[in-house]
Amino acid sequence: MSLLGYQSRITLTPELIFTVILPPLIFEAALHLGWKDFKRESPLVLGMAFIGTLLSALVVAAGMHALVGWGWQGSLLFGALIAATDPVSVIAMMKEQNAGKRLRFLMEGESIVNDGAAAVLFALVSAWIAGQDSGVGSVAMALIQTVGGGVLCGLAVAAGLLLIAGRSEDHLVEITLTMLAAYGSFLVAEELHVSGVLATLAAGMLVGNWGKGSRLTEHGGAAMIRFWDFAAFLANSLVFLLIGSREGEQPMGVYLAPASIGIVLVLLGRAMAVYPITALFARTRLAVNWLNRHILFWGGLRGALALALALAAPEALPERDALTGVAFAVVAFSIFVQGLTVPLLLKRAGNEKAEPA
C-alpha cells in the first residue's frame, strides 16, 4: 500500500492508536506472562527491559544526532520509541521450532515489560520537549509516579472487575469484563496522568494469573484467551495497514539514507540492551548461553508500539515526518529480514538442545 501510494480515508491519529489499538496489544501479551516464571526471571527480564531500553535509546539518539543531523529532541524521541520491541511473530516461530521454554519466556517477558519502559521513556522525553520541568529530581519523581501509579491503577481496575466476573457463569459477560479491564485500566490511568501502558500490562497479568482458572469459569477462561488472541491479531494488522496507507502520502525514497543509518543504529542499540546485561548474570542461575543471547538480540523485532509512538510525536517537531518514515522502515526491516531469519537460529538452538538457556 505504501509503495503504490494508496491513501485511505481514515485519519490515523495518536488518539486512535492509543485508545483503540494499543490496549489489546498490551493486554493480550500480558495474559500469557506467568507470575511464577516472571518472579524467577525478573532480575534478568527487568534489567534488559529497563536498563537495556535506556542504553538502546541513548545509542540510537546519539547516532541519529551525529550521523543524520537531527536535533536532540527528535533524536531522543526516536531513540525512545524505537527501543520498544514486539517479537510476537518470533514467539510463534519459537513454538513451531520447539524452542526452549525459558528462551520463549525471556523473549516474551522482556518484550512486554520493554514496551512499558519505552512508552514511559517516550512520555518523559515528550514532556521535556513540551517545556515541562526537566530537573533530575522532577524527572525521578515523574518516573516513580508514572510507573507506580500505572501499575497500581491497572491492578485496582482489574481486581474490581474480576470480583464482578466471579459472580457470573456467562462466558460472554466474562469476556466483556476483561475488555473493560483492558480499556478501563488504560483510560483511567491516562486520566490520572500515569502510564496507561503499564496499567494495562498490570491488568493483563492479574487477569491471566488470578482470573483464569480462579475467578473465571473454565469455559470463560478458554473463550477469553481465544478472543484476545484474535483481538491482538486484528489490532496488529490494522496498525500496519493504516501506517502503510499513511506512508503512501509521502515519497519513501526521501528517507532511504536516514532509514539505512537508523536500521544499523537500532541493531547496535539492541546489542547494547542484550549482551552487557546478560553478561552480568553469566555466573548466576540466570545465565544465558551465547547462542540464546544471539537469538535475544536478533529476535528483538520492532512493531506496532513503535509505530504508534511515532505517530504520537509532537506536531511541531521538525523531524516528525522523517521520524515516522524511518520508524516504518526499521519495523519493515525487522519483520522481513530478522523475522524470516530467526528460525535458522532457533533450529540451531534446537539441535544443540539449548534448554536451559
Describe, in plain words, how this protein is organized in 3D.
- With 357 residues, the chain is mostly helical.
- It has a single domain (14-351), classed as Up-down Bundle (Na+/H+ antiporter like fold), CATH 1.20.1530.20.
- It contains 13 helices and no strands.
- The chain has helices at residues 14-31, 35-68, 72-82, 88-96, 101-129, 136-165, 171-191, 196-215, 218-247, 256-280, 290-298, 304-311, 320-351.
- α2 packs across α10 (256-280), α4 (88-96) runs parallel beside α13 and α7 (171-191) crosses α9 (218-247).
- The longest helix has 34 residues, at 35-68.
- It is globular and about 60 Å long.
- The chain starts with 13 loop residues before the first helix and ends in a 6-residue tail after the last helix.
- The mean pLDDT is 85.
What can be said about the biggest beta sheet?
none
Shape: globular
Radius of gyration: 20 Å
Give the averaged pLDDT, no decimals. Answer: 85
Q: Can you name the CATH architecture?
A: Up-down Bundle
Helix-residue proportion: over 70%
CATH class: Mainly Alpha
Number of domains: 1
Distinct helical segment count: 13
Q: Which fold does the CATH topology refer to? A: Na+/H+ antiporter like fold
